[in-house]
């Protein structure tokens, strides 16, 4: 039934918080690894001990692809060996018919990273202002928990106006989804998973018209927990930490130590910010001493504690010092101007040594003028040629989301 659903993906947000002495923590079903000794709260990705699986194993690349048929929609998430590009395991998330995987006439437009993943230029454009891959990749990654067993969705009622946060489990059928609220008039959007998969986070509108960030537990009491202010539905969420908290912004990537993050927000100066203590959008009042990364138009990820890989205005890739904002070393040109192609960054390996790009014709990411996907692995040092990734199930709709 899911023929063609061999694609990739998924994502995950790996994160965690070391609580200061005296704060409480929620119980965990998994044994926690020793927390680092730091004088400040730790908000990075080391606070969760993950079960051993092909999707969480060191040296794994995770991808996601949305597949549509006449009677089904499904997201295929795949774990890959990045040396031989052999498939280690695949999971399928069946998408219910009332999930917002595209925006269509007659129904309220919904902001959800799932529309980014499943929408195409033919059917439904991105619900967000910018759909460059450096923007889209972290949005889609936030849909999944760390172990890639649950995916957040926005569900629309038949009235076409009411939307609720929910989730689906991997390898279930089309009826195996959970609607976390049945309240009439709900306006819940931007649904994403917490790292531990125990709650879904979203933006919502109160009865008085105020925009807020909320969460609901996936089990037990599913009452609405108000988490903080939001700036409407236009910007996506990223959730991280232990206990989890959210930031509303684009191109969110946590630094390895968890104390800083990259982000972009309209009218907010800078690219690198200190990690916030609570759930909130980035605003001029909430951020301090932000760093502007020189010439950066797309943030691919961190390549060290103090260095960020950017796509620059010339279409090449550049290491930038996150403390000073100054570019380092020579730019890395993946394609030549004479090729007539563009390269967009998708993913940096956890060791910061390699990154993956998508090469395509301008404004033709989905391959309307050719079905052959062109993904390449490039050294962040600029040494050696780019290596072409080759596998029949990699398509122009594949998004690379995690490289452990």
Secondary-structure content class: mainly beta
Strand content: 35-45%
Order of helices and strands: EEEHHEEEEEEEEEEEEEEEEEEEEEE
What is the percent of helical residues? Answer: under 10%
Q: What gross morphology would you assign?
A: globular
N- and C-termini, Cα separation = 31 Å
Task: Give average pLDDT, whole number.
Answer: 82
The number of helical segments is 2
Main sheet attributes: strand count, strand direction, barrel closure: 4 strands, antiparallel
Give the strand order, joined by hyphens, for the main sheet: 3-2-1-25
List how many beta strands DSSP finds: 25
Region (Disordered): 25-52, 212-235
Keywords: Signal
Organism: Streptomyces pratens
Signal peptide: 1-25
Structure notes:
By secondary structure, the protein is mostly beta strands. The protein has a domain at 61-292. It has helices at 113-118, 133-141; strands at residues 61-68, 73-81, 86-94, 150-156, 163-169, 177-179, 188-193, 199-205, 211-217, 225-229, 237-240, 245-248, 250-254, 260-264, 272-274, 280-281, 296-304, 307-312, 317-321, 327-332, 342-348, 354-360, 375-379, 387-389, 399-403. A four-stranded antiparallel β-sheet has the order 3-2-1-25. A hairpin with a 4-residue loop joins strand 11 and strand 12. The longest helix is centred in the middle third of the chain and has 9 residues, at 133-141. 50% of the residues are buried.
């Amino acid at each position: 039934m899911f023929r063609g659903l061999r694609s990739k993906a998924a994502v995950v947000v790996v994160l965690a918080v070391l609580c200061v002495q005296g704060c409480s923590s929620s119980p965990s079903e998994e044994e926690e690894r020793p927390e680092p000794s730091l004088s400040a709260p730790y908000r990075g990705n080391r606070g969760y001990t993950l079960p051993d699986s092909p999707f969480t194993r060191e040296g794994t690349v995770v991808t996601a692809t949305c597949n549509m048929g006449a009677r089904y929609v499904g997201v295929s998430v795949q774990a890959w060996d990045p040396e031989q590009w052999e498939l280690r395991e695949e999971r399928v998330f069946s998408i219910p018919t009332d999930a917002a995987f595209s925006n269509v006439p007659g129904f309220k437009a919904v902001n959800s990273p799932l529309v980014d993943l499943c929408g195409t230029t033919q059917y439904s454009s991105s619900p967000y202002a910018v759909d460059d891959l450096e923007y889209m990749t972290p949005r889609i990654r936030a849909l999944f928990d760390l172990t890639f067993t649950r995916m957040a969705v926005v569900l629309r009622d038949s009235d076409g106006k009411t939307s609720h946060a929910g989730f689906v489990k991997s390898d279930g059928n089309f009826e195996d989804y959970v609607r976390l609220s049945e309240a009439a008039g709900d306006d819940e959007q931007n649904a994403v998973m917490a790292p531990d998969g125990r709650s879904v986070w979203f933006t919502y509108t109160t009865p008085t018209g105020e925009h807020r960030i909320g969460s609901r537990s996936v089990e037990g009491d599913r009452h609405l927990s108000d988490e903080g202010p939001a700036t409407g539905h236009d910007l996506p969420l990223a959730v991280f930490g232990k206990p989890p908290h959210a930031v509303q912004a684009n191109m969110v990537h946590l630094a390895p130590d968890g104390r800083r993050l990259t982000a972009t927000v309209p009218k907010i100066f800078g690219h690198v910010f200190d990690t916030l203590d609570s759930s909130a959008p980035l605003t001029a009042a909430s951020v301090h001493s932000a760093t502007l990364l020189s010439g950066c138009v797309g943030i691919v990820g961190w390549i060290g504690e103090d260095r960020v890989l950017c796509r620059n205005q010339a279409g090449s890739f550049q290491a930038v010092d996150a403390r000073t904002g100054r570019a380092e070393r020579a730019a890395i040109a993946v394609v030549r101007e004479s090729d007539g192609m563009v390269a967009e960054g998708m993913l940096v390996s956890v060791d910061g040594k390699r990154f993956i790009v998508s090469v395509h014709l301008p404004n033709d990411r989905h391959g309307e003028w050719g079905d052959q996907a062109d993904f390449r692995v490039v050294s962040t040092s600029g040494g050696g040629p780019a290596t072409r990734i080759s596998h029949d199930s990699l398509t122009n709709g594949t998004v690379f989301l995690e490289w452990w």
